[in-house]
Design brief:
This protein folds into two domains: about 30 residues; about 45 residues, no CATH class. β1, α2 and β2 form a beta-alpha-beta unit. The protein is α+β, with helices and mostly antiparallel strands. It is rod-shaped. Strands 1-2 form a two-stranded parallel sheet. The protein is built from two helices and two strands.
């Protein structure tokens, strides 16, 4: 009985060590982030109706960042 207990203890310890060595590897395989040169930064000129629709579409795609908005219509805020 004591030998069986020692074997179980050995297997548990081995499994714990194996799991702890695999965790850092899984973390290291995360896909790399895009470099800044691949980010699309845009400016919107004319934010009424069509400009707003385009801006919403670009933001929803997750492929662009809107940095600037310009509109000469004083009613647009």
């Amino acid at each position: 009985m004591n030998r069986q207990h020692d074997r179980r203890l050995f297997l548990k310890a081995g499994a714990a060590i194996a799991a702890s060595t695999c965790a850092p590897r899984a973390r290291a395989q995360d896909p790399p982030k895009k470099p800044p040169s691949e980010n699309i930064v845009i400016g919107i000129m004319g934010a009424n109706n069509r400009g707003t629709a385009i801006a919403k579409g670009m933001l929803a795609s997750g492929q662009a960042e809107i940095a600037y908005v310009c509109d000469v219509d004083q009613r647009v805020t």
